[in-house]
Structures are given as structure tokens and as C-alpha cells.
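Person: I keep going back and forth on a fold encoding question. Show me how you would write down a chain together with its backbone fold. Please set it down just below, with no commentary around it:
Helper:
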Amino acid sequence: MTIPALMPVYPRSGFRPVRGEGCYLIGEDGGRALDMAGGIAVNALGHGHPKLVEAIAAQAATLMHVSNLYGSPHQERLAERLVAKTFADTVFFTNSGAEAVECAIKTARRFHYADGDPQRNTLICFNSAFHGRTLGAISATNQAKMRDGFEPLLPGFKYAPFNDLDAALALVDDNTAGFLVEPIQGEGGVSVGTDAFLKGLRAACDEHGLMLVFDEVQCGYGRTGSFFYHEQVGITPDIMSVAKGIGAGFPLGACLATERAAKGMVAGTHGSTYGGNPLAMAAAEAVLDVMEERGFLDHVTRMGERLRGALEQMIPNHDHLFEAVRGKGLMLGIRIKAEPRAFVAHCREEHGLLLVAAGDNVVRLLPPLTIGEAEIAECIEKLSDAARVWVGPSDD
């Protein structure tokens, strides 16, 4: 057996997109598919959005990269805009969500080090979490499929059932640095953290002097109808990792923190060669410009309600396969009575509909935030057609 030139760590499908238009991807063979996967919640503005394309092209012709050895008006401008819109006082830019999570972990640990409590270095995480593929990120999950074969993993992590506040609080001890949690688990099955759970974690951090670290890489940046999901809960974290929608397709992430939480992150404690390069900043400013347009987030909310309502109306017609809808805004999942990857492949290959599988037998719908009524109607029609002829193996 000869290994292919492209390392075979992905079981890639036969669909080979080479072009995108709005909510659609066009394959190498000219086939057209409705993209309800959105690059796994990345393509917030769809494909080929003119403002994003123009911003990247203009910046590429001016200055793409200089490293972080010099002052950066590009980073400063975007950081100031994010600080003005969020709980944060300071921002570090990365190239990916996993790197943003790594920075968040370091920030939480470094806070206690700077505060004179270096033994407080353990983060309490949650079952079925997904924080990325780096060694630090997979150490923060207890999913065997992420961890097997990569031991020894990093120490300093404990795990509790998601949405079980009592179990999480029972793990707090003199070595606890804080909690690392996705307010809505994406890969884990589009499981929404309850208000009581998330507010309870916030209260525990306030009581014990801990860091509340949110991972809003997937559920943030407009995906649920607010700029970040925690705004809907009415609490704020101390530290937060973001990515995906922040660049709408350009590789970019960020770690946001309060001044208090970032007290230990001084010169020399962290860095990135490419992080925050001018090209990424131009893309991110264009994304933010669009998202700050009047009515953008209202549109996400309306389309999320429209999509959810249509899914809930469709489910009784195919209750041999579909169970229930979960999620918020345009981060929705359908729990199904079958292996989700098989059904995702069926939708893609036979019906031109792109979806994403997740844990707990869930199929995710993560369309561009610019999706309209017509695309939602097309999605429902394709889903219904796919379910009507589905003969795949059941999990029962």
C-alpha cells in the first residue's frame, strides 16, 4: 500500500468543490449542492461575498504578512472594535480555533500563577466536548476517538457530565483554575447548555476566584442570533476562544479576556508568527462590517426560527428516521434513528444537500448566516426527499 500525497486523516467524500456561490458549492464535475454545512460553521457570509472578496484582494495587493515583531495598526483596529462590542478588554489573534483554545488555557493558568497560586492549574471540562485537535485541546476532552494513540496527554484536566452543575462543582478543589466549556456543544451533538448550568458555573467562579473560559468557536460570531451566545444567557466569561465565523473562511481565531484574567499574559509568555497578519485582519474587519449592518443579526434570528419551524413541521412526516430538533439560531441539529454519517452521505450523494454529522446521532445544519427563505425551503424539500427514500441501517 502506498500512502497518498495528501495525508489520509480525513475520510473524504467524492464531492470535490472548486467554486462557491452564496449558499451553494459547485463541484469539479459541475454538480451543484446546497451548502447547509457552511465549512462547519465557518462560511458565515456564504461563498464569494463581495465585501469579503474585495477586502482580501485589496489587502493582498498591499501587505500580507510582517510577523508580530512590529506595531500592528491592523490588529489594533480590529482588537479595539472587538473590545468595544464584548466583555473583553484585550485580544490575542491566532490562526485557528484550536490555537485560540490553547491561548485561553494558558491565560487561565497564567492568571493563577501571576496571582501567587501556581498550583491552581486544573481546568474542569465536560463530557463530549470538542476544543480542537492539538495535544492541549484533546487533553481537554474525554472522547476516546480524539485521544487514542496520542498518549501521554497533558495533565491538568478533569471531566464532568455536560449540564450537570452539581457534578462539576464536586470536582472543584485547591488545584482548580476554572471551567472550560462550550455553551453549546457542536461536535458533541448540538447540546445547549442550560441557563441554570452556565449561570451556576459563573457563580462558582465568582465565589472561588476561578476563571470561566467559554469556547464559542462554533456557537459565536452571530451563529445563534446574538454576537455571542452567552449574551442570551445574561452572563460573561473571563476568557473566551473564538474562530470560524470571525474570518468567514479566512483562517483566523482569537482569544478574548478581561484585564484581570489576562494579568499574567505579559511580553514573552505567548506568541504566533502568522497570528493577526494584515490579510487576516482585513478579512475580519470586512466580516464585522457586514455583521454590524442594520438587521443582520435579526435576519439570523428570523431565519433560524424559520428553519427550526420547518424542521419541526417536517419531522412527523418521517418519524421513522427523525426524532427532534435541537440548537439555537442557525446552529441546529436533528437527532436521527440512524448512523448520522451514513445519512449525511446519502443527502450529499443522492440529493445535493450538504450537512454535518455530530455526536449523539445528530445531523447538524450550519448554513451561511445570509441564507434566505428560498434556500430554507429547498433544504426542507431535499431533506424530506432524502428521508422518504432512506433505507440505511438503523442503530436499533
